[in-house]
Amino acid sequence: MIDILDLLEFQVLAAARNIDSYYGFSREKAAAKEEVYYTVYLMARSGILKQEKEGLIIQPPFSGYLDEIKNSSCVLVIDRGGYILPRQCIYFGGGQYVCLEYCCTDQERIGVCGMGEEEFFLQLKELDQLPEPRLAEGSGQFDFPKYWENHLSERLKEMPEDEEDREEYPKDDQVHSVFTLRSKETGRIFARMILAALPLEYCMIVKKAGEPASREPYTREKAWEILKAWWRNKG
């Protein structure tokens, strides 16, 4: 289930949990005090906040979402090729995966949901972020390095050593989806995985900060294990 928040509502809740900085989901202009007070009033009326002895308390499921965001050491940003919106930001603090994304029809509202590991993996498949492989099992003897060299675009073959300093991923028709592990506070890139859509099969291009890019044969399970390893290593 996806819960919808106004962007200012999310920012007020984050500030209440002392989450001072996080990647993405910023408003173009600062809110006036009156606007913040009115937002708090609306959240109290809708049940997001509840009056208790010590003040207004954030209620579930939003309290759980904010706990995960606060405890998460980094954020996984998922983009689709061609800069198709919405991009998703995934936080994981050890409990559930919390997904935030702008609403397609209103950039002042965001959708937020919490998922377990199996549910998150299922979402990656259902949204085609981890697509169905094109080859059947048993293709391990195929000469993938030679195929990649002949079919990958020059843009993807020549990913620079300073790729972690690039804000955006390469604009290229072969890009199917992109997974970028970033600092939650600054947005600095720790690692990036690009799925390149080639005629025979997808190619995983994996780049960690300070290391050259590597190319690996694609399977959903291998891509998933790479993503989980990123969380473990940054936790």
Kindly list the characteristics that best describe this protein.
single chain, 235 residues, alpha+beta, nine-stranded antiparallel beta sheet, two-stranded antiparallel ribbon, 30% helix
Q: What is the element layout, followed by pairings?
A:
Layout: E1 3-6, H1 7-16, H2 33-46, E2 49-52, E3 55-58, H3 62-71, E4 74-80, E5 84-92, E6 97-103, E7 106-115, H4 117-126, H5 144-151, H6 154-157, E8 175-183, E9 189-197, E10 202-208, E11 214-217, H7 220-234
Antiparallel strand pairs: 1-7, 2-3, 4-5, 4-8, 5-6, 6-7, 8-9, 9-10, 10-11
Report the structural category: alpha+beta
Mean pLDDT: 87
Shape: elongated
From the N-terminal CA to the C-terminal CA, the straight-line distance is 27 Å
- Contiguous runs where pLDDT drops below 50 for at least 5 residues: none
Radius of gyration: 20 Å
The residue fraction in helices comes out at 25-40%
Count of helical stretches: 7
Query: How many strands, which pairing sense, and closed or not: the largest β-sheet?
Result: 9 strands, antiparallel
The strand line-up of the biggest sheet is 1-7-6-5-4-8-9-10-11
Q: How many individual β-strands? A: 11
State the oligomer. single chain
Characterization of this structure:
There is one protein chain. This protein starts with a strand and ends with a helix. Strand 4 and strand 5 form a beta hairpin. It is built from 7 helices and 11 strands. The chain is of the alpha+beta class and 235 residues long. The strands form 2 sheets. Strands 1-7-6-5-4-8-9-10-11 form a 9-stranded antiparallel beta sheet, sandwiched between helices. The chain has a two-stranded antiparallel ribbon with strand order 2-3. 29% of the residues are buried. It has helices spanning 7-16, 33-46, 62-71, 117-126, 144-151, 154-157, 220-234; strands spanning 3-6, 49-52, 55-58, 74-80, 84-92, 97-103, 106-115, 175-183, 189-197, 202-208, 214-217. The longest helix has 15 residues, at 220-234.
